[in-house]
Amino acid sequence: MDNGIVVAAIALLCALVGFGLAWFLARRLGKQSLQKAEETVQRIVAEAEKEAAIKKKEAVLEAREEFLTVKDQFDRESEAKRRELESFEKKLDDKNTNVQKKLDYLETRERDLGGREKSMQGREKGITIREAEIEKIIAVQNDKLQRIAQMSPEEAKKQLMDNMIGEAKMEAAAMIKEIRDKAEEDAEKEAREIILQSIYRCAADHTVESTVSVVNLPNDEMKGRIIGREGRNIRAFETSTGIDVIVDDTPEAVILSGYDPVRREVARMALEKLITDGRIHPTRIEEVVEKSQREMEVIVREAGEQACFELGIHGLNPDIVRLLGKLNYRTSYGQNVLKHSQEVAMLCGLMAAELELDAAMAKRCGLLHDIGKAIDRETEGTHTQIGADFMSRYKESEIVVNAIESHHGDVPMLSPYPVLVQTADAISGARPGARREPLEAYIKRLQQLEELADSFKGVSKAYAIQAGREIRVIVEHDQLDDLASSVLAGDIAAKIESEMQYPGQIKVTVIRETRSTEYAR
Fold first, then answer.
1. Rounded Cα–Cα distance for residues 204 and 344 (Å)
2. What is the reported pLDDT for 368?
3. pTM above threshold 0.85
4. Secondary structure of residue 470 in the 3-state scheme
5. CA-to-CA distance for 35 and 38, rounded, in angstroms?
6. What stretch of H or E contains 214?
7. pLDDT at 396
């Protein structure tokens, strides 16, 4: 419609222009040119009208096409809406059908439940009547049982509970024994192979040290020179070394007594030098003691370096190496601590290799596990805590620090390496001949072990054998059966662990036997 108006406006404008032009030409050209101008005007008007008609027709066609396009789009949208409405109506119909079916099903269930409820009510009445009858019968039976057994209900319950508890214990013991046997069957062979292989591959001799050292003299006259005029020489020597010198009737020998093994070794070295030199007086004593101390520092360092070299351990701080060397003069139950540490390191490395762990880290943990014993006489606390604190100050690995701190179970173990250290430590200490203890303490430990086993019910006799590393317990066969004997062995072992201190491990063997004797006459 707008295009038609535009075309008409254009045509009208052209007509007016033509008319004005004609009028102008008529006036300019006069009457003579008027006819020609009119013809030109008519031709222009005709062309304008023709062009306007064409434009009008094009506008009409464009408007019709636009109309058809809009109508087609409207039809498509209307069809889509119609289909959507039909689908929605179908879903509603389906839902209505399902709801109706559910309502019918619920009505059916309700009728069934009503019938069942009536049936249950009838059964409940019957059950109530039966329960009353059963209670009467039970009461009569209980009265008869009380008269026969001469026991009250509480006593009968207690006896029944005791019997059930005993049976449960026996069943639990049987199950535990079965599980333990199965686990031991699977694990003992491999564990024994690893440990025995480690022990066979690492055997070391240990020398027994004490708190005294004996220095041989060339003759008894040397004793007087050691003592000096009014005892000045021996006082100067004891002051410089911190070690007591015992001069007694022992021929051609004096005894050096001291708790610090390093100082005692310095005193031994100094005294031997003085005896060899022959010049013994306070000034000379101080010079020789200082020289011996310097030599001792070198010996201690070299001992630590040699231990590290033999195990292939590198990168230790010189102060740590020096403490390792001091362990060469420290003993535990007569066992040289440095040799013990080297043995533990070797065992740890071998077991770690078998278990596919870091053997170098395991050796490091084993070598340093008793490092606190080198300074435990200078610092308060246990050797495990002292050693862990010392290694922490030197930025040692957390694995090594935890192995030192936890190998006696004082703190939780955070990796497999403390377990290896604890196992190797027990193997090294428990090996026959590795450690010793005073006779009185040894006898007391054996007596305590036997008394502890005798304290259990059903034990006839207990004997500590294998230098206190095994205890054999003989039980009364009529008081304990086989399962109870197995439980007793575990109870004795647990009590030994909680109440006694001992190196290595103690094997508990419970023996139960029945002997029948008859005489042929």
1. 11
2. 86
3. no
4. strand
5. 5
6. strand 212-216
7. 84
Q: Can you tell me the distance from the alpha carbon of 35 to that of 19, in angstroms, rounded to the nearest whole number? A: 13
Positions of the chain with pLDDT lower than 70, given as ranges: 1-4, 6-7, 22-35, 37, 145-153, 156-157, 159-160, 163, 166-167, 169-170, 173-174, 177, 180, 183-210, 333-334, 430-440, 503-504
Angle (deg, nearest 10), helices 439-454 and 482-499: 140
Spatial neighbors of 425 by CB under 8 A, at least 6 apart, are: 344, 369, 407
Q: Which residue's structure tokens are 């420290």?
A: 330
β pairing state of 244-246 and 459-465: unpaired
Helix (H, G, I), strand (E, B) or coil at 182: helix
Q: Are 367 and 219 in contact (CB under 8 A)?
A: no
Give the separation between CA 283 and CA 272, rounded to whole angstroms: 16
DSSP tag of 328: G
- Those residues whose C-beta lies under 8 Å from the C-beta of residue 40, and which sit 6 or more positions away, are 18, 22
What are the structure tokens assigned to 293, written together? 């101390």
Task: State the residue for tokens 């090294």.
Answer: 428
Classify strands 470-475 and 507-511 as parallel, antiparallel or unpaired: parallel
Residue 392 exposed, middle or buried by CB count within 10 Å (0-12, 13-18, 19+): middle
Interval 62-95: pLDDT, tens: 888 888 888 888 888 888 888 888 888 888 888 8
For residue 306, the number of C-alpha atoms closer than 13 Å in the C-beta half-sphere is 12
Show the tokens assigned to 229: 């005029």
Q: In Å, how far from its chain's centre is CA 428?
A: 26
Instruction: Sort strands 244-246 and 253-257 into parallel, antiparallel or unpaired.
Output: antiparallel
Distance from C-alpha of 340 to C-alpha of 208, rounded to nearest angstrom:
12
Instruction: Report the distance separating Cα 348 and Cα 426, nearest Å.
Output: 11
Residue type, 213: S
The rounded distance, in Å, linking the Cα atoms of 194 and 346 is: 13
